[in-house]
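Hi there,

I know you've been waiting on this one. I reran it after we fixed the sequence typo, so this is the corrected version. Both the input and the resulting structure follow.
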Amino acid sequence: MKYVFKLPDLGEGTTKAEIVKWHVATGDVVREDQPLVDMMTDKATMEIPSPVSGAILELHGEPGDVRPVGAELAVFDVVSAPHERAMAPVDAASAPAVKIELADVKPAQKPPLSAPAKTAPATSGETRQAKPIASPAVRRRAAELGVDLANVRASGPDGRVLREDLEAFAADRRPAAARAEPREDDVEEIKIIGLRRAIAERMQDAKRRIPHITYVEEVDVTALEDLREHLNGERDGEGVKLTVLPFLVRAIVQAAGRYPQCNALFDDQAGIVRRHRAVHVGVATQTPSGLMVPVLRHAEGRDLWACAGEIARLAARAREGKATREELTGSTITISSLGPLGGIVSTPVINPPEVAIIGVNKIVEKPVVRRGQIVVRKMMNLSSSFDHRIIDGWDAASFIQAIKAFLEQPATMFIRDGR
């Protein structure tokens, strides 16, 4: 009996999904609930299990194909497959995977360039010149290169070895890897599918629809770094470490109370801005599959350590590919940080329908003027972007200035809710 499996409704109004990876192939015998295919919506990537046990007759679609809800994905033969094989765990692929590492792949060796003819050993009818004729400068150069001038073919008058003769000989002796040789113009074509395509489409849509305004401000985080080091020292060995991010989250929570228009979502189709009292912070995280934004929910109700622990947990889930739809949706404002690669300035792209994103650049020690004196301080830039349809330049700058004030005087973040 044939069983046709169609793409099910994946929830939240999803009407289509992209095939990311098949875990099986035509002809495989699978058991019920065995991983069948990875499908990606605009919210998350989900692993869909086999609904039945049986042999796979047909698979519909290749990785990168977008299938609507209700479209056929696979056809099973649930009768002719032997029962014991159908129920036994089997590998997804009929043949074992072969892992090829780049270190194992060696380029084809090219034939060595012909070496210059060496002087033949002296015979009974020949006499080898005891000392080649060359200028003192050529002899010094030969010593530097480690070349015996007796092996260099001379082109000068009376058999004199010229500098050009020496350099040509040394160049021919150089290893092939050290010579400048043209490379074959190989072109690798990579199909953009899965999360990478979703990121590309989302970024393109964000830049096309949202007029960005970017505001950069320098922040003195010397006091913040001293506090962070002190707090980490007090809880050394407990597993959770405070980074700059929990402090920044705290500062955003406090500043959002003053500038609620920055903690908002804009439905540009309906023309409605929805300001949120709760602060759900998306934390942009680089994963092996691409950029993902897990969400730290209700940041306003968490202390520093709770924020640090949840950020670490969410980042690990995202990198392992285990983040759920709920963990990847619902943010009201986003933090973008490249960690030690943060650079000096960045231009982060807004994560729609949000209206603001806070970019964190790296901390550097630099001389600054304080009270008329040049001192070394730990400085960090905040490079932030705002939806200029909703956020005016003045409000954007005021919001960042409020965050700056909290970070430069970190104690104020914990006094009367920063007010």
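Quick highlight: Confidence is low (pLDDT under 50) at residues 82-128.

Best,
R. S.
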